[in-house]
Amino acid sequence: MKLLKKWMSMVLGLVLILGLAACGGGNSGNESSMNDGSANENSSDKTSESSGEYDAEAAQATYEANCLSCHGENLQGKVGPGLTAVGSSYSKDEILNIIQNGKGQMPGNILRGDTEKEENVAKWLADMK
Question: How far apart are alpha carbons 100 and 121 in whole angstroms?
Fold first, then answer.
């Protein structure tokens, strides 16, 4: 009986650790929002430019498969920040950097190095203004 309790405690602990890891690590929380207005001063010049051509359907499918659980079905935010106007605060290149390297509690390499998908989603999100 004691062995069963010990085993169940270990399984529960493992599930808890994996669940927390899926939504990112823990920085101090100072960078918890993508569109909190903390982008560098030159961003406003970059965000007014077009992000270039992209496949909106593919970008949305990539978002739904990889980002929706933290950023919400309608980009409204859940565990992660809302992205409905992220293009007003960040350029395509800044968004791409966040997708690749992470920021705050968001881990990097969400799309596992698929640069085509990363670029496409970054362009799509940069047009969210």
Answer: 11
